[in-house]
Amino acid sequence: QVQLVESGGALVQAGDSLRLSCAASGRGFRRYAMGWFRQAPGKEREFVAAISWSSSSTDYADSVKGRFTISRNNAKNTMYLQMNSLQPEAAAVYFCAAGGWGVAPSGYQHWGQGTQVTVSS
């Protein structure tokens, strides 16, 4: 079983940068591909980015390509999401997920509780 805890969410201004972290505990983290999703009020949870267990493969939603970067440090059991040039439409609760791949939330086994990102214009 893997437990995931997100951190780093904050209130920022449009154009600012923010880095989210996802700390994992439990067995198997280093074998899992992982991803970031986000959910805004009244909207479905949507894919943001994913990274393979070795960091050799990454995938991004078109809406964040070139501005967001996903990474992980297996020695620290931590995954990151660097978000640059944030815009108000990026405001959402951001979730990390493990044990899956692809853009569908149903494809992942483990989830964190989420961290709030708010972007003021």
H and E order: EEEEEEEEEEE
| Backbone CA Rg | 13 Å
The number of distinct helices, counting runs of at least 4 residues, comes to: 0
Dominant shape: globular
Q: The biggest beta sheet, please? A: 7 strands, mixed
Cα(first) to Cα(last) distance is: 40 Å
Q: Can you count the beta strands?
A: 11
Query: What's the helical proportion of residues?
Result: under 10%
Keywords:
121 residues; 7-stranded mixed beta sheet; 11 strands; 50% strand; 4-stranded antiparallel beta sheet; globular; mainly beta; single chain
Task: Report on this structure.
Strand 7 and strand 8 form a beta hairpin. The chain contains no helices and 11 strands. With 121 residues, the protein is mainly β. The chain is 0% helix and 50% strand. The model has no long low-confidence stretch (mean pLDDT 96). Strands 2, 4, 5, 6, 9, 10 and 11 form a 7-stranded mixed beta sheet that branches. The protein has a 4-stranded antiparallel beta sheet with strand order 1-3-8-7, with no helix packed on it. The N and C termini lie far apart (40 Å).
